[in-house]
Amino acid sequence: MLLQIEELTKVYRGGTRANDGISLGIDEGEVFGLLGHNGAGKTTLVNQVVGLLRPTSGSIRIDGRDMVADPGLARRLCSFQAQAQVPIDGLTPRQAIDLLGQLRGLSRRDVQGRRERLVEALDLAEWLDIDAARLSGGVKRLVAFAMAAVAPGRLVMLDEPTNDVDPVRRRLLWRQVRTLADHGSAVLLVTHNVIEAERSVDRLAILDEGRVIAEGTPASLKGRLGAALRLELVLDPDLVELPVSPFGLSAVPVGNRLMVGVPTDAAGPAVAWAETLKRAGSIDEFTLGPATLEDVYVALVGGSEATAAQVEEVFDATAA
Amino acid sequence: MQLLRSYRLLVTWQALRKKNYLPLMMAVQTLFSLGIVLGYPLLFPTLDRTSIYLIATGAPAISMVSVGLVALPQTIGEQKAEGSLAYMRSLPVARLSYLVADLTVWLAIVVPGVILGVLVGAWRFGLDLQVSPLVVPAVLMVALTATCVGYAIASVLPYMLTVIVTQALVVFVFMFSPLTFLPDKLPGWLEAIHRVLPVQAMGEVTRGTIAPNEFGLPLGAFVTLAIWCVIGFGVTYAAMSRRS
User: Fold this and answer.
1) What ipTM was reported for this prediction?
2) How far A236 CA lies from chain B's nearest CA (Å)?
């Protein structure tokens, strides 16, 4: 494994346990997603890898070398797109990307060639020579990505890279994320955008309250859910008691909806059950579709009101 | 070699970041100087020769102190709060390169204001200043100490506290620091405090080199500045290198 994290724990002053015994590994050429709610501990983990925070306990190794002992080496081996906007107001994207490339050791000529390819691939040319202070948040995110990608380290960490980016350029960006991995970097992608992650990552871990609660490929996680289909019920606002799923799989409330896992061979009974609920006035409408990674995520982490007990429940249900 | 290369690149980065603010910063510093040299004679219509020289040489000192101890810590505090300082700390460069590069750019911001301050003072009072060549190292020393101490304040304190402390410093520096008056005007206890703090030394070094015919150049002031400079730089460097 290129990046190997073992039993990583970070307790902040004041007692907040932001990471709680996290272990995971990422291979070169792999795009690894780190998913979780706000406050799940994703950014804390990334900041420890890049040497901004000191772990309370546990180890972080890149190519077998101890990053906790040598944060300077960690900064050289990792390129990093932070969650916050990059401080480039006053610089043009051209200047910002070139400076970062040179700071990571590329010659002026090499950085120019790489910058031209990235700018073309991300369709950034029209903003190349405009002061970043006048760029939109989405364009700045793309520039920040280009700064992280122009001279990629062994590990590339991207913290919410697509925030504010328009849908067309998001696709371009994902393609470049894959290119980074194809060229041998390990990519650690931090996001709470589950739908995008499903299409882009090779493997992922779901983080909740500082712990890894699930890890695997999107397909294996969906398999673990035990439901190939997802029935989404839009609940009647006056409904007092949640409908009880007859399928024995996950049933997680998210806002005014109930996400019900349905086995492949139960599509007919699922529609019939939903029709009954609708006639009874318990729900306003329903949708039946293939289960997605989002369903796994929702089943495990739930809505914002999810509790550890609910997660255990889902685990028990899927294991049964 | 690598240190120098990253220093050069970081100076470029930081200078470009601040270029939009440079004219504003210079305007503010000039206004400081103008305010002092034009305002004091309104308060005190009859000024003796020493007071005139104190005001003319105090104006550039105040402009250096105000940038170093007020504008700089507030800017760094903002960068801490918005996360951009953390981003710069995640770059693959030595902390020393980053810190020295940023200080270089801050010095470049301070110096034009000093020159403007001296010119404004000389013009207003019609002074023929016999500026000492030592003014160059002196001004650099004062500006460096002010920026190092300012950096240390912002590095150690949370942002809101930085804002409060720097606001208090404005009042302290303008009203109760011997920059435009001699320290013997202060009550004994405050005079004693100023013998330890760097602000009085900043005033003495500035006026001793801008108007050497009027004021002596106490070597002790240089020593005081050097000590504060090292403390400020050391605290900042430690804070920048620290992983919380």
Assistant:
1) 0.86
2) 42
